[in-house]
Design goal:
Distance between the termini: 43 Å
Strand order of the largest sheet: 6-2-1-10-18
Oligomer: single chain
Low-confidence stretches: none
Shape: globular
Helix content: 25-40%
Mean pLDDT: 96
Number of helices: 17
Length: 640
């Protein structure tokens, strides 16, 4: 039976919805906050900022991460910048324009109210981060400097060279550790959440495994916040850190939290290409490079000359040719698909013919090497360290790679999931980006959710929980959840097959990238679903996990994560199959214009799909949240 999803969007004009919400939200008095406990899983920008903010308010917070330190969370990998509508360049930017760019960038498949709030809160984040000491780039006169990013015609991206994520994370990490020092945050590093515990239908705690000792632990709270990032590692080869996974949100999904738009995953256009069969990770090169770098391939697919030997007239600057208004700063989905077109047409370059050129020769000639070095020096150094090539002297080679998850747990305007007491923030939820994320909005969403939204919306929920006693971790529901976790662990260790979890992930990732990646088709998706079902059966009988449960065992960790991927992957394909249109990162080959662009169907598919677990990964229940546009009329998304 399909549920009616209540998005809880406040009344009033779009520009007043968030302030109206804050005016009427329930509060918890300072004396009562110390009686309440909150679990925050994840210490990236969303998790660290949320835990620090809630502790600062007086709540007792338990913070969990599987890394050895909160500052190793994957937010460090975001390089290019963070967006904010401050209009420092006086080039016509505003909150409304940023809202519209984000809505259009997501191909009109996100909620207006959430997207507007993201733009509205953006300016506050820059002030917050500057106060924390984040070393944003500055103009000669001391003003903060901006650059442009894909899908926009203004400069609104604040940056700290090519390490913006790392610098912002250090700011939130400092705030978090300050609260650890005061005793308001209890930090559990090297702990992985393995299940969510519900008591009388409410999220009341988690089961976690201590990754150093193997001990399975119970932790209770009045509310649980998941800030565990995205699931791009499901493709195996991705820009994500090796440990990134979907287990926290997937196990919450199996307890009743709906998964929204799982097939909307972003393939990033500027990554280092795969160089060999045994590679386990791809490296992200910041999209900011597209500000000054020009993307091209040889016009002749049989051209074997070195890049610098190919004259200008024999190069195809295909983004500039196809999208003159935006050129090399076309949105990510379009830039990635265009690169794939060139590679599929046989014009790919490099040893495996799987890349395109990103060329800085014109920019170096125009501005000088020192300016380019100042803007992107650490990225050029990283490129040389990995490839041995000096990109000041010859073009970089880049290729599309799996990156960001626009899909995630369904949340309402308050960031509540469909389980009372369970909230999801940052990339773990689906809320702000629609079918494609504009560059430099991921850091923004993570920080805005943690610093500026959750402290209000969680308090609105906790106001009704004051009379609830401290959660009893000896409750039968904790017993049940712990036993289920231990049974699964035992199952992995006793299978005694022939393939490692990593080998299974590799096979699964290849299947997904081919059939549910940059392009999808009915035939391909139906085949992928069948192949994934076969892989899942093989995983149950042919997995090998060496070692024991009572020790450090990275293979055991991987097994749990890949088990979840085996179910999530099928849902991704089911979601992509039922959406018979092309929108943003979801490109169905049957639904395209004569020019090969995405063809949206607003009559039949103007909704977010919210999938409900039905005790069988092959038979989920589809719930639809209809997208209602009161301010903007969705239009054909053109960057020409």
């Amino acid at each position: 039976m399909e549920h009616v999803l209540k998005s809880e969007i406040p009344e009033g004009p779009l520009s007043e919805k968030w302030s109206n919400y804050k005016k009427t939200a329930k509060l918890v008095s300072p004396n009562n906050r110390k009686k309440l406990e909150v679990i925050v899983v994840g210490t990236g920008l969303a998790g660290a900022s949320a835990a620090a903010s809630l502790a600062e308010m007086g709540y007792n917070v338990k913070s969990f991460c599987f890394q050895d330190s909160p500052r190793r969370a994957h937010s460090v990998a975001a390089q290019g910048g963070v967006n904010a509508a401050k209009n420092y360049k006086n080039d016509g930017d505003s909150v409304y324009r940023m809202f519209y760019d984000t809505l259009k960038g997501g191909d009109f498949r996100s909620r207006e109210a959430n997207t507007y709030r993201l733009a509205e809160c953006s300016a506050s984040l820059i002030d917050q981060a500057t106060a924390q000491g984040v070393p944003f780039g500055r103009e000669y006169g001391g003003y903060l400097r901006n650059r442009s990013f894909g899908g926009v015609q203004v400069s609104r991206t604040f940056y700290a060279r090519g390490q913006t994520g790392q610098q912002l994370l250090l700011g939130s990490y400092q705030a978090l550790m300050r609260q650890v020092n005061t005793g308001k945050v209890s930090l559990y590093a090297r702990h992985e959440m393995l299940d969510l515990v519900l008591i009388e239908g409410k999220a009341k705690g988690i089961i976690a495994r201590n990754l150093d000792t193997g001990k399975v632990e119970r932790h209770g709270a009045h509310a649980v916040v998941l800030a565990t990032g995205g699931y791009g590692k499901i493709y195996y080869l991705s820009t994500l850190a090796m440990g990134c996974n979907a287990s926290a949100i997937w196990r919450a999904h199996k307890k009743g939290a709906f998964m929204a738009n799982p097939s909307w995953t972003q393939i990033h256009p500027t990554c280092l290409p795969q160089s060999g069969e045994y590679q386990s990770k791809l490296t992200l090169m910041s999209e900011s490079l597209r500000n000054d770098g020009r993307i091209w391939v040889p016009k002749d697919k049989n051209d074997t000359r070195k890049a610098n030997d190919i004259p200008e007239e024999e190069r195809d600057y295909y983004l500039e040719r196809k999208y003159p208004a935006f050129g090399n700063l076309a949105p990510r989905d379009i830039a990635s698909r265009s690169a794939k077109e060139q590679i599929d047409a046989g014009k790919g370059i490099g040893a495996l013919k799987n890349a395109v050129y990103l060329d800085f020769s014109k920019a170096i000639k125009e501005y000088g090497k020192d300016i380019i070095k100042e803007r992107y020096g650490n990225l050029f150094n990283m490129y040389k360290k990995i490839t041995g090539i000096d990109a000041y002297l010859e073009p970089m080679k880049i290729s599309p790679a799996a990156h960001f998850s626009m899909g995630g747990l369904w949340v309402d305007y308050e960031l509540k999931t469909t389980i009372p007491g369970l909230f999801a923030i940052g990339e773990a939820n689906f809320s702000d980006h629609g079918a494609n994320r504009l560059g430099a909005n991921s850091l923004l969403q993570a920080c805005v959710d943690g610093y500026f939204v959750l402290p209000y919306t969680l308090q609105n929920f906790l106001a009704d929980e004051i009379k609830q006693p401290k959660t009893d971790i000896n409750h039968p529901e904790f017993d049940k959840a712990e036993q289920a976790v231990k049974k699964q662990i035992e199952g992995f260790l006793t299978t005694k097959g022939t393939k490692t979890a990593e080998e299974f992930n590799k096979l699964l990732g290849s299947e997904l990238y081919d059939k549910c990646g940059l392009s999808r088709s009915k035939e391909g998706l139906e085949q992928a679903i069948k192949n994934i079902q076969d892989l899942r059966k093989a995983f149950k009988t042919d997995l090998i996990v060496p070692g024991e449960a009572s020790e450090v065992n990275s293979e055991l960790e991987k097994a749990g994560r890949v088990a979840d991927y085996m179910e999530l992957a099928e849902l991704m394909c089911i979601d992509a199959l039922q959406r018979e249109e092309s929108c943003g990162a979801h490109f169905r080959t049957e639904y395209q214009t004569a020019e090969g662009e995405a063809k949206r169907d607003d009559t039949n598919f103007c909704y977010s799909s919210a999938w409900e677990w039905n005790n069988n990964p092959s038979n989920p229940i589809l719930n639809k949240e209809k997208l209602i546009f009161e301010t903007v009329t969705p239009s054909v998304r053109s960057y020409k």
